[in-house]
Amino acid sequence: ETGVTQSPTHLIKTRGQQVTLRCSSQSGHNTVSWYQQALGQGPQFIFQYYREEENGRGNFPPRFSGLQFPNYSSELNVNALELDDSALYLCASSAKGLAGGPKGYEQYFGPGTRLTVT
Amino acid sequence: SQQGEEDPQALSIQEGENATMNCSYKTSINNLQWYRQNSGRGLVHLILIRSNEREKHSGRLRVTLDTSKKSSSLLITASRAADTASYFCATDARGGSNYKLTFGKGTLLTVNP
User: Is B98 touching A (CB cutoff 8 A)?
Assistant: First the structure.
């Protein structure tokens, strides 16, 4: 088990609604990345937050947005939910710039939030 | 888009046998990592190999990397039922600054007792 926690565990929303997912990073980590994993697929990078700023974004529309707080925890917000947004949302923390060598690239994942859009 | 492709998509073996999974990727990389995922839960980091390394071991895991072929393999020796999971390779691109990982679609490994 990593020290990364996510809430809620499961969520059911209706198309057009908005959702906020939360993530607490592992102690000592300063970077949080969010991934979307559709059923039967590998995780897809949404964006990454470092020092409270977005530090890279994948191929996701602007209705996917996020925040990182001074304690390095993070939120993922999705507006105007679509049926295709149904997926497992994973956050991962890492120690960018803190860990020596390639260790900063190792990401520690939370258990995920299962979002179902109906 | 997916960077890597794992092969095979699914693998079923008996306890005690070895399991080999392969991964191919498209762009130049800094590092390649392997992760395990149990039943749609969070991913667990297994091992990282740098682009200038060719082989790495960790317990029952052996990873090889061939950058000329843009491919990697993960060998799990003496498999156990508890190794049943999906296995993903993930790469971070050379020159990338945001530590973004690009995952393949994964190999579903089933170890039968």
Answer: yes
